[in-house]
Amino acid sequence: MHSDPPFPAQQPTPPQNTAAQNAQLCTISGTVLSANTGEPLKKARIFLSLKADEDADSNKAGLSATTDAAGHFSIDRIPPGSYNLDARRTDYLPGRYGQDQPDKPGGTLTLAPGQKIMDLQFRLHRMGIIAGRITDEDGDPVRNVNVDALLHTTIKGKLKIETTGRATTNDVGEYRIFDLEPGRYSIRANSAESPHFTNAGLQDNTSDYLPTYYSGTTDSARASTLEVKSGDEISGLDFVLAPKGSARAFKIHGQVLISIAEPSEQSVVVMALRRENREVSVEDRKEARADSKTGDFEIQGLVPGEYVLDALFFAADKIRTASQIVDVVNADVEGVSLVLTRGINIAGRVVFEGKSAPHDSNVKVWLDPVEADTGIFTSGGREAEVQTDGSFVLKEVGDASYSIHMHSKCGVCYIKSAKANGVDVLEQGLQVVSGAAPSSFVIVYSSRYRRRERRSYR
Predict the structure, then answer these.
(1) CATH annotation of 19-124
(2) pLDDT tens digits, residue range 220-247?
(3) Alpha carbon of 193 to those of 145, 172, 208, 340, 380: distances in Å?
(4) Other CB atoms closer than 10 Å to residue 206's CB: what's the count?
(5) Which end of the chain, N or C, is less surrounded by CB atoms within 10 Å?
């Protein structure tokens, strides 16, 4: 759901109402139409607000208007300046001035003293709806089941799957998910998180079923996907929940090897999590404790799919981790080895570019684990202070994929480039696999052209 941001009272009066000041004020007007039908949209809200980085000390309030039956709006008595202009309406994607597509950035509306613009036009795209019915193996409706719409996107060449809509089935097993932006979706039905009792005191047995994807599989990799376009209302997406026991469960057996001279009380937990970039579902996670002497572990009850296997070693105040991708097809997986080490030291160098870039102290580099590739139980980021000669060492970095960040007192500096063994770290991330560190890691930290690049979007 999209909610309108709060705005102050509409159209404040200038502090001094003089003829000269009134002549400086501006007026805008226009129409809001449906991009799907071309019809005017009534009750659309128009918001005009100063650019956040301009006139920061001004007390000028944001202005707003509501369209009439003809989709028309008008705002007057606007002080000259640079503004964001947005249009919003229930059931539609928001639109911004200068935006030709919903997923593209908008522009800035710049008003000269006394200017009048009377032909503005917004074309808003209606959001999509999907609906269907969930039944059990006997064809009876299943109520109180959470049904998620999972949006599939590709970011920097990697698949990202996230929940963008949810509904709960009613008494006849029907669900309806609305306010979906255009894109490709899969649908997942989850059992209720806790037992639900009817007015008659009978418990719904939704916990007897596995998380099931449209159209009827428990394996996310084999789930059907559908394209939702602007204005689509897709119904009839019916499917049957898979009862527990209907899908054969498999196991992963292996051993955790600890090559760390840590004192006493070794405690190792191994977790298997479906390799999907989304919030963690209890139903998708299985775990086991490794034998304290042999390191053997066995995780049971796994439906087919691709998993991230995480071993966590708790010793004193430290957590060590090791990760591995395991594909469970149609058989048990044997002989998996997870090696826990202290991690590796990664040495690198920062090249400072521009007069404003700091060359002395208080410059830090740190790594953040990328959850989509390594599971959720990583040992956290690693941080290093950059020396005066630009060198740094990130210590005890475990196996994972990391994003790179920097911090300093320079307000305009940014990471212009970062490469490890010739690979673009900003684009691909820093990969640490089986304790292998990049032999060449160079970051260019620059203050040049930053302001010019920012203003090129205005």
Answers:
(1) 2.60.40.10
(2) 778 899 999 999 999 999 999 988 776 6
(3) 9, 19, 12, 34, 29
(4) 23
(5) N
